[in-house]
Amino acid sequence: MTGHGRLATFTVGGKARYGAVTGKGVVDLSARHGQWPTLREVIEAGALRRLAEEAEAFAPDFPLDA
């Protein structure tokens, strides 16, 4: 992310998810990274920066107003 994005946890259909909040919506990173089921595991793996940068390449899965 370009310094303005944030990572967040959220719930969809009763399931906990994590993703990147962008200017256009939320990119569901948990759906793309099954090896890290939780944001805590992403942090423990040292993969925060990688996922944040990767999120820039994806269209949002959820709009911010949902």
List the helices and strands and how they pair.
Layout: E1 6-12, E2 15-21, E3 26-28, H1 39-44, H2 48-55
Antiparallel strand pairs: 1-2, 2-3
Give a quick set of tags describing it.
3 strands, 66 residues, 2 helices, three-stranded antiparallel beta sheet, alpha+beta, 26% strand
| DSSP summary, beta strand count | 3
**Proportion of residues in helical segments:** 10-25%
Assess the beta-strand content as a share of residues.
Answer: 25-35%
State the strand order across the main sheet.
1-2-3
Description:
This protein is α+β, with helices and mostly antiparallel strands. It has one domain. 21% of the residues lie in helices and 26% in strands. The chain has two helices and three strands, in the order βββαα. The chain has a three-stranded antiparallel β-sheet with strand order 1-2-3, covered by helices on one side. The longest helix is centred in the last third of the chain and has 8 residues.
Describe what is shown at a glance.
With 66 residues, the protein is α+β, with helices and mostly antiparallel strands.
